[in-house]
Amino acid sequence: MSRSLLAGDPGLASMDPAITKLEDASTTIYHGDCLDVMRELIADGQVDLIFADPPYNLGKQFGESEDKWPSDEAYVAWCYSWLKLCLSKLKPTGSLYVMTSTQAMPFLDLWLRNECTILSRIVWHYDSSGVQARKLYGSMYEPILFCVKDRKAYTYNADDIEVQAPTGAVRRLIDYRKPTPEPYKTTKVPGNVWYYPRVRYRMPEYEQHPSQKPEALIERVIKASSNVGDLILDPFAGTFTTSAVARRLGRRSLGIERERGYFKIGARRLGLAQTLDGEDLRPLDKTYIKRNGRGASGGAES
Ligand SMILES: C[S@@+](CC[C@H](N)C(=O)[O-])C[C@H]1O[C@@H](n2cnc3c(N)ncnc32)[C@H](O)[C@@H]1O
């Protein structure tokens, strides 16, 4: 990774002792608070794409920390502080995707409208396993905002994310409205409701984390809003899904995670270390208990 991506040239020795990093030619991962890392180590105006998937203030346990703020006001004030930093790290042509809970998103939406342009309000819709709500409509989606700094100059690779557009017809339909009739196009750019299954224990990509995002979802974001060689930042890396997909798609990436356990998952998932803190970094040992001879699972679902 080129040192010019960093503010100054801190080097490991002079870095804030609360921050550690691992890197290779395309990928840098930081263990630290994203506010500190963005302020101290990432230069302004360098990043092409940010995928920000913060804690949602819903009381989940992330490693040693509980995802709970004293009030909604305190939570959104914290969000505004990292969003401001994120926007300063983006190039003038950069894009920002932001996730949070359905409850908190309206506050972020209103705030972001004054700072940049929100181009799409995306719904990530998924299936639901386990007990269903009985007295209200259970939650089956999470919102994502797609924002750009300059609505006249941003990356959007529509051809790279096209999906099948089922017409319902068995035969190929001909569009007779064209000057020369031709078959209807059978692919289209996806709309703003995206269906992707949540990451489950049985899936090869599963890591031990309470809100890991599917690689397929992040793949669509990266393909649409960046090019090969571009720099992508994920300030709340969790299991470093963004870094893993960025690497597979030939992009450079910076990922930041506050919990040491998840940083170790990232180090292993990205092949940046085999041991850390004297510990061998091994993939999760998934065991399946056969109960009936047909392969029924004793493993937990996410
Ligand atoms: C919703 S999860 C992200 C999951 C990630 N997208 C993935 O696919 O694995 C949010 C993550 O942010 C981390 N986090 C919370 N506060 C943070 C902070 N101030 N700086 C860096 N990471 C933080 C949590 O430990 C958690 O792993």
From TrEMBL:
| GO molecular-function term, one example from the UniProt record | DNA binding
Q: Which spans of this chain does the record mark as coiled coil?
A: none
Keywords on record:
Methyltransferase, Transferase
Extract the Gene3D superfamilies matched here.
Vaccinia Virus protein VP39
| Source organism superkingdom | Bacteria
In what residue span(s) does the DNA methylase N-4/N-6 domain sit? Answer: 47-265
Q: Does the keyword NADP apply?
A: no
Fetch the NCBIfam families from UniProt. PRK11524.1
Its family remark reads: Belongs to the N(4)/N(6)-methyltransferase family.
What is this protein identified as? Methyltransferase
